[in-house]
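[worker-b] picked up task from shared queue
[worker-b] task type: protein-ligand structure
[worker-b] ligand name resolved to zinc ion; SMILES cross-checked against name lookup, match
[worker-b] sequence length check passed
[worker-b] input payload:
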Amino acid sequence: MPISPGSCKFCNSSHLIEFTAFERMLGLGDECTYQQCEQCASLQLKEIPQDLSTYYPKEYYSFEPLVRSNSLHIFLKKLRMRALFAGVPIPEPPYAYWLKKLHPRFDDKIADVGCGNGQLLYELYAGGFKDLHGFDPFISRDQQIASGLQLWKKEIGQSSETFDLIMMHHAFEHMANPREVLKACFERLRPGGKLLIRTPIADAAVFKAEKELWVQLDAPRHLVIGSQKGFRLLAETEGFSLDEIEFDSEAFQFMGTELYQRNLPLTQANLANEFTEGEKEEFQKKALQYNLEGKGDQVCFYLSRRD
Ligand SMILES: [Zn+2]
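[worker-b] inference finished, payload out:
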């Protein structure tokens, strides 16, 4: 395999190994080159296409319309949020595991970077949070969704606000320069403020086994995928402490990768129809096991700003 020019965006090593990948989600088949760092095992797209928008079709999930709750549902969601933080055993919403760990106060200033339509922030608003800001340069315009919930059509680095908590849910890997992203978050966090980054991870067992067929390589949309080693090094260099790494991978890593092995695009219909209910259950069990063993394909990085 050829040694590639350039340097690792996580650890700066110039020992990069190239491999070829193909756009598979939409079935376009466009070829691109990824580089994997020999030092830290992080992944990066070698050359970022001029126009990435052709790889983000209109129906891309994050541009679906926001679903609002009626006043009864808002009332119930507020009760549920309080129960969640009080440790009452209730059916939990999908975001409960990381939110409980972060345990923000209801008046904390919270940013969601790469917020898409703002649905997650809306759920937090419905649950009682009062100072919510979404950032996404790809939304159509600035939008006041509700009192205390604003979406901004810009990067967080262009904001002059300071936050108690900044989160990124599967947005980090779509950004070309991880060091600049972490710098911008550092500058926009109060000292001691928290940063949550949920992202795929290059240490994934599925990537090791299946290489470019790994569904979360997602060529060429995923521009950088850190390893634990590379991410920790970069985050600590940029003034963060990495408090915890939690694996939260799902059956999707096996199902999506299996579709690519069968040379099928990643559609909801294929995910639904290509597998039996029994297979889906087995995949989910395997995902939980992988998470326990620290070899799942995505993580939550819990960070805090030092000083
Ligand atoms: Zn590296």
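[worker-b] attaching auto-annotations
[worker-b] The longest strand covers residues 189-200.
[worker-b] releasing lock
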